What does this fold into?
Amino acid sequence: MPLTTPWRSRALTAALLAAVLTTSSACGDDAPGTSAGGSIKIGLLASLSGTYQAVGTEIRDGFQLYLDTHDGKLGGRQVDLIVADEGNGAQTAVPAATKLLKQDRVSALTGIVGGGSVAGVTPVLNETKVPLVGSNGRPELKDVSRVWHTSYLSDEPGAAIAQHVRDNVKGSVYAIGPDYQGGWDELRGFTDAFGKIGGKLANADGKTTFTPFPATTNFLPYFARIKASGAAAVYTFYAGSAAVDFVKQYAQSEIKDIPLYAAGFLTEGGVLNAQGEAARDIYSVLNYSPDLDNAENRAFVAAWKAKHDGSPTTYALASYDAAAVLDRAIGAAGSNPTPEAINTAIGQLGQIASPRGTWQFSTTTHSPVQKWYLRQVRQDGRALSNTVVGDLATVGR
Amino acid sequence: MRGEVIRRARGGIAALVLVGLVVAPWVVDDYTTSILARTLALALVGVSVALLTGVAGMPTLGQTAPYAAGAYACAVVGSRVSDVGVVQLVVAAAAGALLAALTVPLVVHARGVIVLMITLAIGELVVIVLGRWRSVTGGTDGLAGIPAVRPFWGFPALASDQARYLYALVVVATLIGVVLVLLRTRAGLVLRAGRDDETRLRASGHRVAVHLSGAHIAAGAIAGAAGSLLVVAQQYISPADFGFDTSALLLLGVVIGGTASVGGALVGAALVIAVRDWLFGVLPGHAPLVLGALFVATVYLLPTGVNRARGRLRPRDAPAHEPVAHDQATVAEAHR
Amino acid sequence: MIAVAAGTNRIDPYLIPALDGVAYGLLVFVAASGLVFCFGVANILNLAHGLLYAIGGYTAAALLDGGWASLGLALAVGVLAAAAAGVLLAGLLTPVAAGNHLSQALLTFGVALAGGSLLVAGFGPDNPQVRVPAALEGSVMVAGHRYAAYRLVFIVVAAVLALALYLVVRRTRAGMLVRAAVDDPEMVACLGVSPARIRAGVLAAAGALAGAAGVLGAPIIGPGTGTADTVLLLSLVVVVLGGLGSMAGTLLAALAIGEIQTLGVALLPSAAPFLLFAAMAAVLAVRARGLAGRWRPA
It folds into this structure.
């Protein structure tokens, strides 16, 4: 056998291996999710480093805000919130979720930014029989018996705005989005609904244009094609850095005067600040806007602004609502809120009052049946913000 | 004399580690067991990286490509054809070897940093294909719902973390044994001789390209087999499992463990992956910072890191000024 | 015949992508030229190069306020900060043997991970806003098409920068030392120039170039959590394609990458995701085969 590594390094690596093994086993903790003291363990998994850190941070802060405004309790029990980092996707999310579920033995899991991460965590959820109240990404799943989402299905924003675009745009619409599952679903939601009511796509082959993701930082070649297509409007979905690049380049391009409609994530949260003036007047569809006029929202926004700069996003709201769902479900699960009992209780919640307006879980998809709003980026005091300009369809199935 | 002592100590440590790995699932909790099973799969890919980087002299960032081919082949076979582990393992290894064979014309003539970049491109291209070939791969959200594997016809399905881990351990140990035996054969010697002095080996009538191609395909088969272990350990795969960060971490793990040593590569890759997975759980938000600091510290701590020109990655025209290490198979040796 | 068939209407939609390919290519060139120095001269595989660019980018985002003075200030601060980071990196690399690329990769990858994490901790996870001088905010007409004014000016500035770089490397004593160090490191050591000083100087220069690219390129490849990785990957591709150390080769490779990423995407939209890496693998494989052929005894 070849021997190049000197003896010392081998000893060192062996020692390191032993150290890792012992520390991780020493951390092993066989306590159940609930303890006699009336506390309960909840696991929160979100991207706290890497590409999706902005969304992950909002998700953590939204959940924490609910705890802070409810004495740190859910369903009358003191919450021991255990946070783990999802990283950039399933490859880091799966081991982190495994830790929460098999070592910390949480009673319920929440958060998770990426749809791929949710898909990766599902086998572990089914094995440990713990419910997930997800607050963002939602992949296509065969079995949703333990998976609930307070966010939305990716094809719903597009479906909700299609009628509005059909009524207000005189001509064909160019559809463009990022080339990954989220992009496919978001754009399919729009193009399917739009086609059904007689709308025409301006894309050369009648199919949505997908841009390599996350590799595309330059959208000008695509704008040249949109210009050549003679489209009367553009519908798109991007989030994060791609949304910033898309919007800024759009505003400086030769198609800057073509109206831009989008799923709300294009101008949501931090990306709107980075886009600045370039985002002005963009129409978007989302299930939430911080200027919604209801009592729950006023309290939510005030509590958020007391702790953070700027307004809350739909990501923070979904996570806040996930905490609200768990609050009621744990309360309803009786004196021994086992993961199974919590899961059953979630299915019986009915209407849920929320800053976004009242919503409820669909019995088939376990995601919200909720109202969608049309928003436009407008001046609000010194900053630009998404302002609600109308109600769109209530979607959910 | 000293060599004898070292060899014995090395054997002792290896035996201790092996015993530790066998009893581990009864000592540690389910979480650690499942992480170990996943780590074993990645460590096996690390071994294939070491075979190419250290033994054949072709530093690679693209072993995630045959690894992915094996994993997806195994997942497709597992959900549609057979849940027998041996079948899946053979199919996965064949898929990995096939993909490696297809890419041989791209890499076999290149050396050093050029190989690194070509293999990087191959790895990225494979990830892009995986993300877009939705009917087979499930797209960027990946493939879930892969049924539990049974090791052999008539065996029960592996339903617990312990069972999955032990299955992975047996497969990895077997494959490592095969690799170690193969490296002692004449082909292994020629391979290392070619790495150390290609011109002389060529001059002495050896067909270096043939040996390198063989090594590349063999490494592909090992990575493919590792892919099937990932499916068993995780019951889910997505293109994210095979991205650039995985290949970079594996290469770094192999560097830490010593590029030319199979055992070192195994431990190095396992350590890097295990530490990463562990950090994302216990230090949410700070894992990259700590991991980065650990890499920097490792360079200073490991005697291989500092002031020992052992890297195989020099520009094509820089001369090699290396002390002859004890593993170097000379051309003369290869001629025995 | 063919020329007649391909009238202005056929070419017209591709004018802007082609022009933009030049802007993108020049940005990649300025960003990658520092890595050429690291690799060609100091023989250092610096995987923290993208971090140096990101430092420039975040500096631009923090300091730019829409005026010209702030652009000058951001450029000065960004260049200095990234150059200082380069010197720091050279210090960290001192105990690592020259030419030990794998250990260098390990160390610089660690620095990139940790440094990137610190940058995001300092500046926040959101992409910051980059405000260019108001005069450059809008767009101008180029051959009947609208094009971002900033990018047009950037093409001119980056071209001047590339020319200056070429002249410095060709004509000055420092440049000659640098070229001599590529050709014969031992000879330069005999001239009494310490390798450690060359290394620090080269990494400082690499940092300055990356920092300048980061500030000037912030409106094109803006600062964010993924910036360092994007820039590192593009730079590595360009440096290797350009032939590891040749300035002219690097420029050519950078412009080719720029056109592949813009004109190529416009011409072959369905192949867009594969273009960059497929082109790279093909070119490298063909060239490696050519080299291997030359090495073989006749």
In short: Chain B has a mean pLDDT of 85. Chain B touches chain C through 56 residues (CB under 8 Å).
